[in-house]
UniProtKB/TrEMBL annotation:
Keywords: 4Fe-4S, Endonuclease, Hydrolase, Iron, Iron-sulfur, Metal-binding, Nuclease. It comes from Gracilibacillus dipsosauri. The keyword 4Fe-4S applies. This is Endonuclease. PANTHER family: A/G-SPECIFIC ADENINE GLYCOSYLASE/ENDONUCLEASE III, DNA REPAIR GLYCOSYLASE MJ1434-RELATED. One of its GO terms (biological process) is base-excision repair. GO terms for molecular function: 4 iron, 4 sulfur cluster binding; endonuclease activity; metal ion binding. InterPro entries: DNA_glycosylase (IPR011257), HhH-GPD_domain (IPR003265), HhH_base_excis_C (IPR023170). Signal peptide: none annotated. Residues 36-191 form the HhH-GPD domain. SUPFAM superfamilies: DNA-glycosylase. CDD domains: ENDO3c (cd00056). Pfam families: HhH-GPD.
């Protein structure tokens, strides 16, 4: 099957409409949320963010003791690990005087490399930060994207970056498209392409091979 990412994107967009992600009031809240959501669901992140709200400024987070931070974010799980990661992220950003504009001026791949060097920030976390807080056009390769692309019939590279680059080449530098694409894939994985897929009424049915994992 021809791997028509544009058709996939358009079909999802026509069905679900704009998703207007990420659910956060500020870029900092978005980036902290991206760390908190590692290995948990968004409901737990929301609980942690409510407790953290009085400290959701870069300087305030910098001043906060790691142990105190860990207690505040307890609802998100793995709280000691995540507190260390948030502190490492804040330390990294401090080099730029907590200026979002200075960070945004960095070239995409340079910024990506810097984020990947921060303790506890992997590819998926770095890419959602780049996409939703730092205005860089990247495709996020999460488990939902892998599942949907596979079931549709697209043979994607196993390597995270090769998968990402292959999709990115289709929509060069289209920030709004990548912003919506990731959110639409998440929505679709929740509504239809679940672990047990609901193919009968699925809006992608006509373009999907409905492959079962392991085929
Ligand atoms: S038709 Fe089925 S397998 Fe294909 S995208 Fe829809 S729910 Fe997933």
């Amino acid at each position: 099957m021809e791997q028509d990412y544009l058709l996939l994107y358009k079909t999802l967009f026509d069905h679900y409409g704009p998703q207007n992600w990420w659910p956060a009031d500020t870029p900092l809240e978005m980036m902290i949320g991206a760390i908190l959501v590692q290995n948990t669901n968004w409901r737990n992140v929301e609980k942690a963010l409510i407790k953290l709200r009085p400290y959701l400024g870069a300087e305030a987070l910098d001043r906060l003791q790691e142990e105190e931070l860990a207690q505040l974010i307890k609802p998100s799980g793995f709280f000691n690990i995540k507190a260390k990661r948030i502190k490492s992220f804040i330390q990294w950003w401090k080099q730029y005087n907590f200026s979002l504009n200075r960070v945004k001026k960095l070239e995409k791949e340079t910024l990506r490399k810097e984020l990947l060097n921060v303790h506890g920030i992997g590819r998926e976390t770095a890419d959602v930060m780049l996409l939703y807080a730092l205005d860089k056009a990247v495709f996020v390769v999460d488990a939902y994207a892998r599942r949907i692309f596979y079931r549709i019939g697209y043979d994607m590279p196993n390597s995270y970056d090769q998968f990402r680059l292959e999709v990115e080449q289709t929509f060069p530098e289209k920030l709004d498209v990548f912003n919506e694409f990731h959110a639409l894939l998440v929505e679709h994985a929740k509504q239809y392409c679940r672990t047990r897929p609901l193919c009968d009424k699925c809006p992608l049915s006509s373009i999907c091979k409905k492959r079962v994992e392991g085929d």
